[in-house]
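Researcher: Please translate sequence to structure tokens.
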Amino acid sequence: MTELLFATNNLHKLREIRDILGTVCSIKCLKEVGRDIEIPETCDTLEGNASQKAWFIHEKTGMNCFADDTGLEIDALGGRPGVFSARYAGPDCSFDDNIEKVLLEMKDVADRTARFRCIFSLILDGVEYTFEGVVNGKILTARSGTGGFGYDPVFLPDGYKQSFAEMPPYLKNGISHRGRAATAMEHFLKNRH
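Model: Translation complete:
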């Protein structure tokens, strides 16, 4: 089984990815390999950040690894928060702060279409591979549900009546942006020999 280091300190992401990729590869996080590293994220695109993080960790550890970057893109906000999704309300903000800022900016806005995009950058034997996952939906007018993390309580995926925060993990992981990018990576890993 391939062992991959996931370039993250986010335990929510780690749990999701292990649920999806656990049968194909062994996923380790930075703390499990004794690396408590602050990972740079200075690019202005999701693709750039994912690549930057993966190469940074690969260079520090020499291990096969992958990183992701995810953004919520809201049409009425010109694609914001996008690459700044995690820190949209400021450098030391919480998930709640980010949601409050989005709800305030979307108050009285009729067009609530949005999408989550996730980019995975995989460094395998010194070569980079990229995978993308997208899920379309809309921004709710108020929070709904207590599960998940990030913007999950205000994101309603197309074709569903539950926000990501109301869905059981198996359902969310099956349709989410991160789930779709991870599934694309899973197919690649299964079929690369």
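Researcher: Any highlights?
Model: The chain has five helices and seven strands.
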